[in-house]
Amino acid sequence: MSDPELPDRTPRLAVYAGVFDPPTMAHLEIIDSALRIFDELIVVVSFNPKKAGALFSPEERVRMIDASIAAEMRHRVRVTAYSGLTAPYAESLGACEADTSSGHRSEYSAIQDRAAALGISHFIASGDSGAYTCGQDQPPAGSFPSTLPSVTAVGGTTVFESAQGIYYKESAWGGPLDESGGGGGPSQFYPVPDYQKSVSQTAGHGLRQVPDVAANADPNTGFHIVFGGQDGQAGGTSAATPLWAATIALINQDLKKKGFREVGFANPALYWMGANSATLPAKPFHDVTTGNNLAYDAGTGWDFATGWGSMDGAALDAAWILYIKGGGA
Length: 329
Known about the structure:
This protein has helices spanning 25-37, 58-68, 86-93, 102-117, 237-257, 267-275, 313-325, and strands at residues 13-18, 40-46, 77-82, 95-96, 123-125, 143-144, 152-161, 167-172, 174-175, 180-181, 185-191, 207-210, 213-216, 223-227, 230-234, 285-286, 310-311.
């Protein structure tokens, strides 16, 4: 949220990461300076859970920074702790594609194109604002960099368990009260790639469509975590995305063990599987057909709310072997 006196535009967001053990006046001066430039600031307390000798726990550092921020500024600052690399964390936040500069898009696109050429799988969170990454007062839009044709964009679902506590079904994640949901929508810049042309939709206007796939992201049905010795629950497409990446890492292990090449850029295979799902021994995706992401309804097959849907890990692995055996690129 931005201050009332700020112009009516998409808020400018910055990420400031550091160890902050302990927070110092210099840190607080940087936060103050950042708030003079940006509308919103995320302060990330970085830590290594395997490293001993910290003066303060991550939770204590978060509380100290929170307490040091002036009351009138707190609505513009979010302080969180994170144990991974800062770049993937910042990337998972996404950005309104229309507000990214052409230079930034070109630079990032070149990096991702090179990664795809090298056979690297890269999964990107599609955002947690539903189809309204650019704001509720703006048309539906995709989140950059998930709109890049050379990455796999991951949307969000809400998961329902059976009475026995096992997987039952999923719905597209969309929370109208807090304006949250899995990101999805057409790019404003990138043409629909070849692998996606078979599911090109009218609402896509001939442009790249997001997401490609989805997974559990609703914080209300999210992942059980233990942080600082305390049980908790986490969600967001930045939680769904590493689930996909980890699943592909396991599939890579199995492929390598069986003498096949690794997954590489995943999208051509994913869209082949989606198109041929009915002929495969087991369906690699849970096709999500209910719910919406605040703008787009989930439906049979590919959709703007959940892409092809979430994965069935074993079936996905088996389908990948068939794809490679059949000469898939």
